[in-house]
Amino acid sequence: MSKKNKRKAAHQDREAPMRQKQERAIHDAKWIAKQIDAFSKELLASGVLDHALIAGIRRRGAELARRVRDRVSKQWGHPVPYGALDITLYRDDVALRGPRLHTGKKGTVIEGPVDHRVVFLIDDVICTGRTIRAALDILNDYGRPGAVRLFSLIDRGGRELPIQPDRVAERLSIPHADRVEVRLEETDGEEGVFVVLGGMR
Amino acid sequence: MAWTRKHLLDLESLSKAEIVEILDTAASFKEVSGRSVKKVPALRGRVVVNLFYEASTRTSNSFALAAKRLSADTMSFSSSGSSVSKGETLIDTAKNIEAMGVDAFVIRHSAPGAPHLLARHTQCSVINAGDGCHEHPTQGLLDIFTIREKLGKVAGLTVAILGDIRHSRVARSNAHGLRKLGARVILAGPPTLVPPAIAAALGVEVSHDIDAVVEQADALNCLRIQFERKAGRFFPGVREYAAIYGLNEDRMKRAKPGAIIMHPGPINRGIELTPELADGDRSVILQQVSNGLAVRMAVLYLCMGVGAQSVAAREEVEA
Amino acid sequence: MPTLLLKNGRVFDPSSKLDKTADILIDLQSGTIEGIGKNLKPPPGAEMLDCSDLLVCPGFLDIHVHFREPGFTAKETIASGSAAAVHGGFSTVVTMPNTDPPLDNSSAIAYQYLKAEQAGMARVFPMGCITKGRAGEELAALGLLARAGAVGFTDDGACVNSSFLVRSALEYARALGKVVVEHCEDHDLSNGAVMHEGKVSAALGINGYPSAAEEIIVARDIRLAKLAGARIHVQHISAKGSVSLVREAKKKGAKVSAEVAPHHLLLTDECCRDFDANYKMNPPLREPSDLDACLEGLLDGTIDCFASDHAPHTTEEKSQEFVETPNGVIGLETNIGVLLTHLVHKNKLPLKRFVDAWTASAARVLDLPGGSLKVGGPADVTILDLDLRWQVDPARFKSKARNCPFAGWKLKGAPVYTLVGGKVFPAIGATMKVPAKQKSARSR
What is the pTM (predicted TM-score) of this model? Predict the structure, then answer.
């Protein structure tokens, strides 16, 4: 490739994502912090913290769960066990979409036993419900939870399985083709909730 | 990167990125072996067939367990007491098994290239579990995985592979993989067991002076003398071999402080490696075995995912 | 009197120093050439074959083919092999005796002659074994074999490793006026190897066959031939060192000759990387420097002639594991095309030497009839279209076998007709030729 063409190609690369993926921010870091706060308060009021497990689905759900756990543990004064669930090996679409790759993932980590615990399962966005189905299967493989409560930051609808969250921060009604993205400092280098137009394509 | 290979036939044709992908995937699968329910549903409903034309317990069990941990059904087929002893060809055998609706073949065969031949004649994924003296890609991967895990990196390390290089598929897979990841590889052994063209063929160094090699190596991978491949014809005797080319405690005094000792097993104890070293502090031989499971899970998961994907795509077209 | 006129071709025969546009008149009753010259007047009712823009050569001889009958007729028969020969431009072939039973007795030789006559296509000359059952232990009945028509003696596929037996065979052959034809391989050194020993075999973990295993026997046989005062012919030469041994021996006046197969001039051991058994043969494909040495030997006359070592096997046999699959590839129907395309058209080999090495020089090695265009001589003619473009499609071969290393190759130049005793057989160039119009229709 000539120098000129190379420069041209690089230019196109920069432009391409902007053209294809227009996005708008709908919430900022402050909003996310407020929801973490609200979730934490609910947990503190639950009365089951002595036998709770706060778990999130890798990667962003796990990060949200870690924040909630840290907050709850601090205010309650005792550490609450934490779990990060990697659903890669529990997906039901390996045959359709091929293997998911693992860059940066560390597998499932759960502190302590699952048996009889009330699991507060946290994820960023719920849509079809298939991810949650996979997460429930992981929990089952680790033991028999006393109960599982599902918390999601965003519910964008489009359920394909009869799974409903117990607590949602916001319900969004957006076109099917658009994608909701929760971005976190630790995983994405920025913080906020975004709608990516055409992001599901 | 996206994983696009349906088969794992050798490490020679893999890119550096693909090797790293397998290693990273394997790292994330290690966790499964630590649970009380050591099983995940990733390959539920799929069938993996172990097609072993050479005796093996370690590798076939490792593959079978890896498949089971991914919830695949497994079936094993060995050459004795089967249609093979009645003179059936590899392709006929494979096609008959394939007709039962299986998804992957894990094949071990004494003929180099047998997995490549099978891959040309089947719709299933084909995983090479050792083809003659050619390659043993999952062993190469698990050795590299173990080096990376124990020493924190691969690039820049010096890895010595000692012994019966001529007959070793492990040496060939290791050499290709390690070189791609930036390690320096030295193949060392008696002149008759290190084929003359191997340095040029694999892009590695060759030495016949074990003491000099031991001094430089960060990892020493001792190979089994393959008596079953008549390796005994290539050197004067076991006692001479152990004295001049074997790894013993005395010789290891020259080694770097952190150098590790590996062996693909089964060990001819006291010939290529003394029992003291095999069971000693530097030995990572048992870690190799447990890492083998994670690596084989990763390989089955990646290749069978792609294989199933192509089947799904085909069915979609047909429908 | 039935006659055939080959009209207006470029008559090309290095042995008769012929290279001119001329006609050839053939007497179909006797199967001989009646006249060669410009504007020959055919008698009324004569058939005519327009040879404008075609090269009219003496019938080509392939002195090394395996027709597998008796014993392995699933691979090839004398009839299918003869059909492949004339389809590939060969009017004469010499068959190797590694049949089952092997051609180590006079009735086996007579059987091949009979089958060839029934097939009625190429001229087929069988070679007899050196040792009984090709076992390398006792001499076969060389005298009776010669009387039955064996044109030479070989254990091809196996080398006679006993120097004593080779010496005895050479002495016998001298008295019979025949040639001992040797597959040169020191079996102790090659040790069951299935490919060339080098970089590729080292990478593939396949037991390799060093060039030295061939060279040792070439050197030994040259000395034994001198000792016996007899002629030795080196089959399918493949190694650089063998070529220099033959060259030096010829300089000193030794009675040695050699042949080379097209695959040993065009393919290297790199072809084996994918474990494709269609690149497995013995002697094996070697390295670029060996190819260069073989070509050089061909150019300076060290190597006398080409021979295909046409070795048919069934597709089932060839789709086994590389080390298990039998040795050999077919060549009769690609010999001419691949050499024209990759040596003659690339100016690596003069057309004259190309034709000579398939005709007069090949005939001379075994004292076979033919190899030149002479008035009164047999009307064995190979007619080539040097510019015909075609692609190798084994499905269209007349051979029963498909183990062709050149499948899919795009070639320039092909035989279009083969004449055996005046009888015209369309060759691969004629059967593959597609008129321009049809061609474009097909591509759509």
Answer: 0.88
